Amino acid sequence: MKVSNWRELRLTAAQRRLLIGLVTALSSQLYLSVWAEGFRVSASVILYPLLLVVMMRDSHRPDTGLVTGLSVMGIRVLIDLVRGVSLTTALAIEYPGGIFYLCYDVLLCILVRDRRAASLPRLWCSFFLCDLLSNTLNLALSSGLAVYPLPAEVIALSWVALARSCAAVLILWAIGRYRQLLLREEHEHRYRHLFLMTAELKTELYFLKKDSEDVEAVMAHAYQLYEQLEAQQAPEALTSLALSIARDVHEVKKDNLRIIRGIESEVAGAYDGETMVLSDLLHILEVSTRQFLGSQRADIRLECRYSPDLPIGAHYRLLSILKNLVTNAVEAIQSAGGRGTIQVDCRAEGDQFLLQVRDDGPGIPERNRKLLFQMGYSTKFDPNTGDISRGVGLPAVQYIVEDLGGDIQVQSQPGQGACFQISLPLDAVTGGEP
């Protein structure tokens, strides 16, 4: 089913009324007959108010009660006819049951004008009164109005109304709680997605700004070349070419700056003023890592430990550090068979925040360790596609660590995994500024 057509499947008010009538009529066949012929105590009266509140929230007229009453009476009369009861007798027996549902809806429309805003206690009181009064009328009509309901019968009807109204309200409460859980889960999913996306964008901004500085230097050199060629009275074609290069580079620089400003305007202030406890930050890391692993989540385990559960102000930068290191560890393990464990350990010692990311992957050769933090260096090459990683993950980690006033160390031996140890000033991590 296409998502774009979901609105076409929504029921109209008339269709919802008919559906409520049919569902109630069918469920009303589960009943007990007491006190008078045709008077039934049915479990459908638990379902009926739920449908009125959930499916007919905007209803202010008892149209649904009329449709439901006719449906209930019609089905019961048909069953009586099949059993050999005459039409006149069947109608005389079953019409009080139809009146019950009409009366219930009339009373509910009077007692609850706005079903969307009504509280559960108000709905419970309304359900109880609707049930009791409608049942009392039903019993009186079933008795042919010859004998009014006795006090003992009214008390019994009150207990029935109390039980059914309590059941209906409990189900409504459970539905409300379930909806809240779904909304909370959806909110948390969107929050994680937005937070991860913003963290990635803020990290990428560093490289865009660095590229902007490089472009600025190229433009300056091109213009210097133009000035030197002009001073030396070089051929006009060469001087024009040098000036054209300077102009083109300047346009590239302006485009780059527009991109930077656009990204900065999108992510500026997004959760910047908030703090996030370390446990929540690690939970986001675990969720994003499971999504990254996909079908391999059972083969590669991520274990996170922390002590204590600190409030983190520099949450974007800390998450960028963790995500890059964990992603590198995952890719290292995948390159060596695809099974292993990654351990993340965060703790505070004195005025330092210590972070350690350890994996049991293939390790890093000594010649590669010297180049880990060089921009553009990468060992990740896909022989099937020819794609090579741009090699900015670890340089980004080093930049963020140094920007926070910390340092990073790497320990690794071939075949024994790798361990990245980072020390950061505690104030820079909790306060967001070095």
Any descriptors?
elongated; alpha+beta; 9 strands; 434 residues; 3 domains; two-stranded antiparallel ribbon; single chain; disordered N terminus; Heat Shock Protein 90
Strand order in the largest sheet: 4-6-7-9-8
Q: Strand-residue fraction? A: 5-15%
CATH second-level architecture of the largest domain = 2-Layer Sandwich
The CATH superfamily label of the largest domain reads Histidine kinase-like ATPase, C-terminal domain
The CATH topology of the largest domain, please?
Heat Shock Protein 90
Low confidence ranges: 1-9, 385-392
CATH class of the largest domain: Alpha Beta
Order of helices and strands: HEEHHHHHHEHEEHEEHHEEH
**Beta strand count:** 9
Class from helix and strand fractions? alpha+beta
Helical content class:
55-70%
Largest sheet: 5 strands, mixed
Mean pLDDT: 80
The N- to C-terminal Cα distance equals 53 Å
Question: Which term fits the overall shape?
Answer: elongated
